[in-house]
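Figure 2 data, in text form.
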Amino acid sequence: MAVFEFISPIYVFLIFAGTLVGIIFGAIPGMTATMAVAVCLPLTYSLGLDNGLALLLGLYVGGISGGLVPAILLGIPGTPSSITTTFDGYPMARKGEGEKALRIGVVASFVGGIVSLLALFFFAPALAEFAIAFSYVEKFLIILFALTVMAALSENMLLGIFSGFLGIFISLIGVYDVTDGGNGQYRLIPPGTEYWLEYGFSLLPVLIGLFGLATILEGAEQGMPRGQSLDDIKVGEHSRFSLSVFKGQIVNLLRSSGIGTFVGILPGVGGSAASILSYTATKTASKEPDSFGKGNPAGIMASEAGNNGLTGGAMVPLLSLGIPGDATTALLIGAFTLQGVQVGPLFIGNNPMTWDSMIVAMLIANIFMFAIMYFAIRWLAMVVAVPKHILFPVILMMCVIGAYTINYGIMFDVWTLLIFGIFGWLMVKLRLEVAPFIIGFILGPSAEIYFVKSLESFGTLGIFFTKSWIAMLLWVLIAGSVIGSALLARRKSRERAAAAAARG
């Protein structure tokens, strides 16, 4: 068939190679899908448009999916969008269910990728038109809704909210850029540190420090723990994984995939917000919200379906409007530019073969991702059986390399890793909450930008309530999330009091 004439052995091989390399990049803390695409972008010039896009889309899908491996096995999010995967994946790995958690994550990632791909194929023009209706006001309210998860994720609500606002505060360190509505002046920077803190703290070194180095420091303090035995981690025939774990989770998978796709459509909101929103929605709808954060498989499903749902959604504004949905799709514009092709409203109509090629490439990349990760997962799960006195130095080396390379050789990022590693270790001592802190750190800058841009555009706070029916709906969701979190905190408090009374 003429429609599939672009499929060739080299086309399929490039998708496979891209997916494999993307998984490797995603699985190494500090290396991301964006970095994988950036490194391989120059190679596409000699490959032609269809083959070049096949390679890059494989890198994109593999890079997003690979982040779940360290998130589950080591408690270190491989990419920012896998942050919520650590909340339930790592507790499962510590209980010896690493292989089961990984397989759940892979299946959920596959479902998220396919759902978003179907949305891209059937609804791209209509979804792009709907996305245009989202102004800075609606984007701010979406970020605000995602921030409400800080309270729901906290063991102690007040300390959790304080930790979240502390994360927002630290994320605002640096120059208040005029492009963000600022005055171009330094803010929140201690005297004498302007040279290092001009651009604030980079996200990935902060993530790696809080979740990687802090864990190593805690392990060192308690005495080097032994790795789990192969019997403990239940690999192979001892694995209790079965697709029956997805029974009753179809709504969760579809809702999280839909949220990821929808967030991907909105330029600039990002994969972190997609996974956080999906996780929040699942926890709020659950009959057992207390079990989240302690190894509930539904949390992994929500996070992974959400962040992989982003892959197809982010293509909608890119191909329909010429607007990149995130940093990785921004690099894909470079591939089109290298081939002299302009993306925008006329792209799909003028380039039907390239459109078909991209859809098929993403479908094959998702299948390769599933095959590679699902069947190799047994060997990956054995990582937790490696003795900690061998594993910890390797993790530390990977953390330092990842932090140093994320911005292509900035030594201050390594110092950032050390600072936030020690800070994460101290947070445990001070009973502060790491998860709300990092969510505030990730979403704080976006919230500020959209809030300021909204006021610049409309000049009144009332616009946040009257802009559109979408804004009013988002306020309803925000109120529901806050009330739900307050009720959950109240119930936890009663349970703690009852447990204390029972102990006498």
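Caption note: DSSP finds 24 helices and two strands in the chain.
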